[in-house]
TrEMBL record:
CDD domains: NAT_SF (cd04301). It comes from the Bacteria. SUPFAM superfamilies: Acyl-CoA N-acyltransferases (Nat). Residues 72-251 form the N-acetyltransferase domain. The keyword tRNA processing does not apply. InterPro entries: Acyl_CoA_acyltransferase, GNAT_dom, NAT_camello-type. Keywords: Transferase. This is N-acetyltransferase domain-containing protein.
Length: 275
């Protein structure tokens, strides 16, 4: 759910405020983006889509199933959710990236600082970016963000103003409260985010995940994502953190996920099947 800049699957501006186009693939970004979700370089709020720790279905540490505390509701994020979302994100990072990022950096992450920055840009987000929260028994237990893809190779014209209508989407972030991993929160957020991306007319959905975040990678693969061969490295707390790009089609156009991603410049629903 990661660092889908958890996926948990994550730094001055957060990952969902008017995301700037990412640079060319295989580059070294300034400061961390949202892991696993493909994030804005340079913000302490978002050190890299992995997206977050994802659902495993069982608390292996205690040998028992984790059950939801109550009915789960997926809804759009509001300004009143800022602090709760920051708590989910910070705790998700600290749980998901232990051993993958400098521990001093993770220990120094602050919910209060994250919330302050998040609140400052919340009202200035791009209207094309959708933030969703998972709520159970009145408590926010997960968060996801999806919008137009920023990588120039999958979003032609993303660096132009005005940019053309995007045909590819990006899962910028997907985080689940650590104690709720395995209860279906991540799957529900992924399903809702994918639906929103499809409703926006995107033909494909991309995300970035921190290399070595095996749980997030398995989660995305179960959701139909596969690596497309692109990679990037960025710095978190002075250390290089590599990430991989994943993709999946949003239409029956490409049932064979081992094939190449669709051509985002084509108006043909299934470009490779066109006469």
């Amino acid at each position: 759910m990661g660092a889908v800049r958890p996926l948990c699957v994550l730094c001055a501006m957060p990952e969902v405020s008017n995301p700037a186009p990412r640079g060319k693939v295989k580059r070294t970004a300034p400061e961390p983006r949202e892991p696993g979700s493909g994030k804005n370089p340079g913000s302490p709020l978002d050190p890299a889509p992995t997206l977050s720790p994802m659902d495993t279905g069982r608390d292996k540490g205690r040998g028992r199933d984790r059950r939801p505390a109550g009915p789960l509701r997926i809804r759009e994020m509001g300004e009143a959710d800022v602090e709760a979302v920051s708590a989910v994100r910070v705790r998700g990072w600290q749980a998901a990236y232990r051993g993958l990022m400098p521990q001093a950096y993770l220990d120094g992450m602050s919910v209060a600082a994250d919330a302050e920055r998040r609140r400052s840009w919340f009202g200035r987000r791009s209207p094309d970016v959708v933030d969703l929260v998972a709520e159970s028994a009145g408590e926010v237990v997960g968060w996801a963000s999806v919008g137009p893809a920023r990588d120039p190779d999958v979003a032609p014209g993303a660096e132009e103003l005005p940019a053309p209508r995007p045909t590819a989407g990006e899962l910028f972030a997907l985080y689940v409260a650590p104690e709720r991993i395995g209860t279906g929160v991540g799957r529900a957020l992924m399903a809702a985010g994918t639906d929103r991306a499809r409703q926006s007319g995107y033909r494909a959905l991309y995300l970035w995940v921190v290399r070595g975040n095996a749980r997030a990678q398995r989660f995305y693969e179960r959701a139909g994502f596969v690596p497309d061969g692109a990679e990037e490295t960025y710095k978190v707390g002075g250390s290089n953190v590599p990430e991989l790009r994943y993709w999946r089609p949003l239409s029956p156009c490409s049932p064979d996920l081992t094939s190449s991603p669709p051509d985002p410049t084509s108006d043909v629903p299934c470009a490779r099947d066109a006469p």
